[in-house]
Amino acid sequence: MPFAKTDFEGLLIFEPKVFEDNRGYFFESYNYNTCKADGVDINFVQDNQASSEYGVIRGLHYQLEPHAQTKFVRVLSGTILDVVVDLRKASATYGKSFSIELSAENKKQFLVPKGFAHGYAVLSKTAEVLYKCDAYYNKETEAGIIYNDPHLNIDWKIPTDKAIISDKDLNQPFFKDCKNNF
Ligand SMILES: Cc1cn([C@H]2C[C@H](O)[C@@H](COP(=O)(O)OP(=O)(O)O[C@H]3O[C@@H](C)C(=O)[C@@H](O)[C@H]3O)O2)c(=O)[nH]c1=O
């Protein structure tokens, strides 16, 4: 499977081979064996799907060890800005963020390893997002970082007055105070 590397260790971008004909298109959105052949040997156990309208920002979220999750993110309809922050203290990119536009049109998928906080902003009228996880949801180890943390200084591409954010996410801690056992 064609995984492209980023400057962040283990953070990969996947672009599927798309077959188009007069009916439409077909592609393998996930294939364990071909992922494994490309060095991505992950046992996904949970799929999550969410629909959101323009301006929604979800995140930044992660689960602490021993319930940390690898996420494999894609967009079924619309366009999002997907954002991650490296929380791995020994990493060369610790404390840095990485953003990528994922859309139903570009069909890109984003492999986010354990040790990253994850979030996204919806840039289209609506967007449906689906992501595979390799560990189950565990409420007790849920953690987060405030989306507008001044140290991270993430450009979510949404004007402040249009941002729609849950109460939970408006009360997340700053990066400097976040829970981190990575
Ligand atoms: C994440 C999750 C939530 N829930 C429940 C809890 C809550 O009542 C409801 C909505 O949860 P949230 O508000 O946390 O949903 P949301 O803000 O969409 O949370 C998600 O954000 C993105 C950015 C991620 O990376 C995910 O890991 C996840 O944290 O769904 C589950 O039952 N299972 C799950 O796996």
Automatic annotation (TrEMBL):
It comes from the Bacteria. One of its GO terms (molecular function) is dTDP-4-dehydrorhamnose 3,5-epimerase activity. It catalyses: dTDP-4-dehydro-6-deoxy-alpha-D-glucose = dTDP-4-dehydro-beta-L-rhamnose. Transmembrane segments: none annotated. Coiled coil: none annotated. Its EC number is 5.1.3.13. Keywords: Isomerase. Pathway: Carbohydrate biosynthesis; dTDP-L-rhamnose biosynthesis. Belongs to the dTDP-4-dehydrorhamnose 3,5-epimerase family. Homodimer. Catalyzes the epimerization of the C3' and C5'positions of dTDP-6-deoxy-D-xylo-4-hexulose, forming dTDP-6-deoxy-L-lyxo-4-hexulose. This is dTDP-4-dehydrorhamnose 3,5-epimerase. It comes from Ferruginibacter yonginensis. The lineage of its organism: Bacteria, Pseudomonadati, Bacteroidota, Chitinophagia, Chitinophagales.
